[in-house]
Amino acid sequence: MLSRNRNQSLSDSLTAQNYKVDYPTSEGALPPSPELEILMIFRRPLLASLIACAALSLPKPARAEPSSAEISAAKHAFEEALVAEGDQRWADAAQNLRQAIAVKDTPGLRFHLARCEAELGRLVEAALEYDRAEELIAHGVKAPDVQKLLGPARSDLQRRLPRLTLEVPADVQVPLITVDRQPYPASELALGLPLNPGLHQVRVQAAGRRPFERALNLKEGDRIALSAVLPVAAPPGGPSDANATPDPPPSVNPSSSEAPRTENKPSSSVKLYLMIGESVLTVAGLGVGIGYAVARGSATDRANAAMAQLELAAPGNPTACASQDQNVADLCSDLTTALHDHDRAAHLSQVGFITAGVGAVALVTTWLVYPSPRPRTSGFSVLPVAGLGRLGVVGRF
After folding, report:
1. 209: CB partners within 8 A, 6+ apart
2. Are 274 and 244 in contact (CB under 8 A)?
3. Which of 110, 241, 336, 363 has a CA positioned 20 to 30 A from the CA of residue 158?
4. Where are the domains of the chain?
5. What's the CA gap between 273 and 281, in Å, rounded?
6. How is residue 230 annotated by DSSP?
7. In sequence order, which residues have a C-beta less than 8 Å from that of residue 386 and are 6 or more positions away?
């Protein structure tokens, strides 16, 4: 932490140099990693170059310099930020630094703001502030003290910053990947996605595949590598449709009077057994769907209760689950268990309702399509009769 004399001299420099702050901080320094620099190069290469070319080809509009009143207000905000940093009131310090940056953006202010963000557990935001400070220095803003400490600070921050690497199977076409409901390209997660410490939800889905979901509780310095498993989803109604396909009716020998009775009986029995089985499948699927829907609601209530208790135990602390407090750790464990139970119950409930729907469709199809026993038709038939000492015909109605 800077001494009060150092803070005063930096505040004087702020006013004397038209609010060009080039001050450092002696602790809380944080870092760059080669992965983050490569990621930044890939994320805004072409667009940044096009904007830069367009800016160079156009005349630069005259930008009004801050007035003396604005400089005075910014200087006061900066001094308040230094006092808040000394008292470790990082949120207040960050707010004052943003007010000063709104008047004039300097590497020193960005450096201090990065430290406040890191102390608040927002490591990703801190890395962005260090990047902005480096960008200002690259564009010619003089800040020798900040430039000297910027490299080690970014290196230390990159060691603390958790990273998530996700591998998606090569045969999965056009996967939709979300982290905390924010979409990300697969290439970015393959390089390693920087995340803040705390709870995160990862979901991968693709057409014709069952989704992959995972809840993570990241700590500083974690390097997590996941392999997304997306099994091929079975087509709905496959087995039931096969059962519902009617067999061709057996051939009937018109010369036999007993043939219709023996053939109608098996046809009627098969249809009855099919309908009984499909009815049981429908009822069972409906019961599973309703039962796990109730379980999902119960898990949601448990998760909400755990979140509320966690907020009471550690209000406004995004890294509460990384603390050593046993009560907070138990609450985080209850929250993770409730989220897992909710996802499992939601999946099984969906399977149950789909099974009930397939069974109902198969039942109706069997009822309408499968052949019913036909009544014996009346008529007149003549059969030849030959025997010892007799010859003739026999008629039957």
Report:
1. 172, 230, 231, 232, 233
2. yes
3. 336
4. 4-56+66-160, 163-227, 238-248+259-369
5. 12
6. -
7. none
* Confidence band for 2, pLDDT divided at 50, 70 and 90: very low
Weakest mean pLDDT among 157-171, 213-227, 306-320, 326-340 = 306-320
Per the prediction, the chain carries an average pLDDT of 76
- Is residue 194 a contact partner of residue 162, using CB atoms and an 8 Å limit? yes
| Under 8 Å between Cβ of 155 and 29 | no
> Is pLDDT of 68 > 80?
yes
Tell me yes or no: is domain 4-56+66-160 CATH 3.30.70: no
How far apart are alpha carbons 16 and 32 in whole angstroms? 31
- Helices and strands per DSSP (H, E), number in the chain: 12, 9
DSSP string, 112-170: HHHHHHHHTT-HHHHHHHHHHHHHHHHTT---HHHHHHHHHHHHHHHHHS-EEEEE--T
Per-residue b/e over 304-326, b at no fewer than 16 CB within 10 Å? Answer: eebbebbeebbeebebbbbeeee
Is the pLDDT reported for residue 161 higher than 80? yes
Which tops the pLDDT comparison, 392 or 123? 123
Q: Which amino acid is at 350?
A: Q
User: Which residue type does 86 have?
Assistant: G
Token pair recorded at residue 34 = 């080669």
Average pLDDT (175-195) is 92
Q: How far is CA 207 from each of CA 113, 167, 175, 187, rounded to the nearest angstrom?
A: 43, 17, 8, 19
Question: Do residues 32 and 155 make contact, with C-beta atoms less than 8 angstroms apart?
Answer: yes
DSSP of 261-278: HHHHHHHHHHHHHHHHHH
φ/ψ (deg, to 5) at 294:
-65, -40
Is the pLDDT assigned to residue 314 strictly greater than 80? no
256 and 366 in contact (C-beta within 8 Å)?
Answer: no
- 268 vs 250: CA distance, rounded Å: 13
Q: What angle do CA 184, 190, 193 make, to 5 degrees?
A: 55
Q: Is the pLDDT of residue 93 over 50?
A: yes
Reported pTM: 0.45
What's the confidence (pLDDT) of residue 120? 94
Mean pLDDT of the region 340-344? 87
Measure CA of the first residue to CA of the last residue in the chain; give whole Å.
114
Q: Render pLDDT for 246-304 as a digit per residue (tens, 0 to 9).
A: 555 555 454 444 444 444 455 567 878 888 988 888 899 889 889 988 988 888 888 88
